[in-house]
Each structure stands twice: as structure tokens, then as C-alpha cells.
Design a protein that fits this description.
Helix content is 30%, strand content 35%. The protein has a six-stranded mixed sheet, sandwiched between helices. Helix 1 crosses helix 2. The longest helix has 15 residues. It is globular.
């Protein structure tokens, strides 16, 4: 996937936090510590360093949600981070993103903290970020087929 395609997909699914630009994705793709897990209708981006992994973002085309794609991407991201030596994975999610929080909880993540007013919203307000983490020694979900 090109940085432009990633940015387009990210823009389709996010307003909070703000969608990332193609230049930002190009930087992540050039980072040897980052792994892109692509799917025809979505992607996950994870960075692993010194035993810790961070889910940077996970996005699924809104027209293809509720089909198990995000669950498969999450499982693949967990597997990739563990294969790179990650012992724990961390993430931040907008407190109002109930769907993502449910996905992460179903994937074994637990809430470990809160960052008040972390994300800028399009209307000028700020949204809290929930910090979540999980150990990478438990099983993960298989990646769904593309298409």
C-alpha cells in the first residue's frame, strides 16, 4: 500500500484523532521498526522496540466494517510484534471510540490509564485518550482472507 492509499483509508475512518497525512505514513513505512499489516480493505501499523510494541493505528474502510477485518489485523499485529521480540503491546484510543475499545478488550487489552484532552477534535474541543496494554504471550486471532 502506498502512503497515499494509507492516508485515504485513514481519512475515511477517522476524525478523532485527526487523519494522518501521506507524508506521515511515508515516514512510518521508512522506519525499520515499523510493520505495516495490509488488507484489501484496511491496515494496521505497529512499531516494536526493546521488548515493547505500540499499535500506532488500525483502520478499516467503513464500507467493510463488522466483517472481522479489524480483528484479523489486530491478531496479525500482535503476532508480528511478538515475532520481533515484543513482550507487551500498548495503544491509545479515543475514549469515545466504543467500537475500537470493544475490539481491543476482545483482543486481551486492558485499560491502564487515561490522557485527558489528548486528541484535538474537528470542532475545536479535545478528547481523552484511553491507554491500553496487553501481554504478548497469549494466543491471537487468525488474519481474514482479503477480498
Amino acid at each position: 500500500m502506498t502512503p497515499e492509499a494509507l492516508a485515504s483509508l485513514h481519512r475515511a475512518g477517522f476524525t478523532v484523532p485527526r487523519p494522518w497525512r501521506a507524508e506521515e505514513f511515508a515516514g512510518f513505512l521508512a522506519d525499520p521498526l515499523c510493520d505495516l499489516i495490509p488488507h484489501d480493505h484496511g491496515f494496521a501499523l505497529v512499531r516494536t522496540l526493546a521488548g515493547e510494541a505500540e499499535l500506532l493505528t488500525i483502520a478499516v474502510d467503513p464500507a467493510h466494517r463488522r466483517k472481522g477485518i479489524a480483528q484479523g489485523l489486530m491478531g496479525a499485529a500482535l503476532d508480528r510484534a511478538a515475532a520481533r521480540g515484543g513482550e507487551a503491546m500498548f495503544l491509545e484510543v479515543a475514549a469515545g471510540n466504543a467500537g475500537a475499545i470493544a475490539l481491543y478488550q476482545a483482543s486481551g487489552f486492558r485499560r491502564i490509564g487515561l490522557r485527558p484532552a489528548y486528541y484535538a477534535c474537528p470542532d475545536g474541543t479535545r478528547a481523552d485518550a484511553v491507554l491500553m496494554a496487553r501481554n504478548l504471550t497469549s494466543g491471537t486471532v487468525a488474519m481474514p482472507e482479503s477480498g
